């Protein structure tokens, strides 16, 4: 937890204070949203509107003129790529930490919490 957030609920010098929390279901609808920042030589990607627990395990990016490149976690929920993909159409492959349950029934429509593919166009001056 960041220090500014902690200072809203506790005293900085108080030491260890137990915190009880509960994860709740996220009922998001619609597709994933991508916020893309960076410069000509790198990309910073923020993926939002991730349903469920929002636990993204990995992201790969592919430009029009490149193959798939693994992105790394930069800080928190920001993903970083060093591929220099300015001006190219981008495809993203996103893996969630969630998986299909064992012995899932046949013939049932299973809707994962995370969409696995999306495409955006990255334009820079």
Describe this structure in words.
Its main location: secreted. Keywords: Cell wall, Cell wall biogenesis/degradation, Secreted. The protein has 125 residues and is mainly beta. It has a domain at 24-99 and 111-121: Expansin, cellulose-binding-like domain (Immunoglobulin-like). It is 6% helix and 37% strand. The chain has 1 helix and 8 strands. The protein has one helix at residues 3-9, and strands at residues 33-39, 42-48, 56-63, 68-70, 72-75, 78-81, 89-96, 117-121. The strands form 2 sheets. Strands 1-2-6-5 form a 4-stranded antiparallel β-sheet, with no helix packed on it. The longest helix is centred in the first third of the chain and has 7 residues, at 3-9. Mean pLDDT is 74; it is low at 113-125.
Q: Top keywords for this entry?
A:
125 residues, 37% strand, 4-stranded antiparallel β-sheet, Immunoglobulin-like, flat
CATH superfamily name of one domain?
Answer: Expansin, cellulose-binding-like domain
Q: N- to C-terminal separation?
A: 37 Å
* Total number of strands: 8
The outline comes out as flat
CATH architecture of one domain: Sandwich
Q: What is the highest CATH level, the class of one domain?
A: Mainly Beta
> Runs with pLDDT <50, length 5+?
113-125
CATH topology of one domain: Immunoglobulin-like
What is Rg? 18 Å
**SSE succession:** HEEEEEEEE
| Percent range of helical residues | under 10%
Please tell me the overall pLDDT. Answer: 74
Structural class: mainly beta
Our estimate of the beta-strand percent is 35-45%
Number of helices: 1
Strand ordering within the main sheet: 1-2-6-5
Question: Major sheet, described briefly?
Answer: 4 strands, antiparallel
């Amino acid at each position: 937890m960041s220090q500014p957030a902690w200072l809203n609920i506790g005293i900085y010098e108080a030491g260890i204070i137990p915190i009880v929390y509960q994860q709740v279901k996220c009922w998001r609808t619609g597709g994933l949203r991508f916020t893309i920042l960076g410069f000509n030589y790198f990309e910073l990607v923020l993926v939002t509107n991730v349903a469920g627990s929002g636990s993204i395990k990995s992201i790969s990016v592919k430009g029009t003129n490149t193959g798939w490149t693994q992105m790394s976690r930069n800080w928190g929920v920001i993903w970083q790529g060093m591929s220099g993909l300015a001006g190219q159409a981008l495809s993203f492959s996103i893996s969630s930490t969630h998986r299909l349950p064992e012995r899932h029934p046949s013939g049932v429509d299973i809707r994962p919490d995370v969409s696995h593919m999306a495409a955006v166009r990255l334009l820079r001056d």
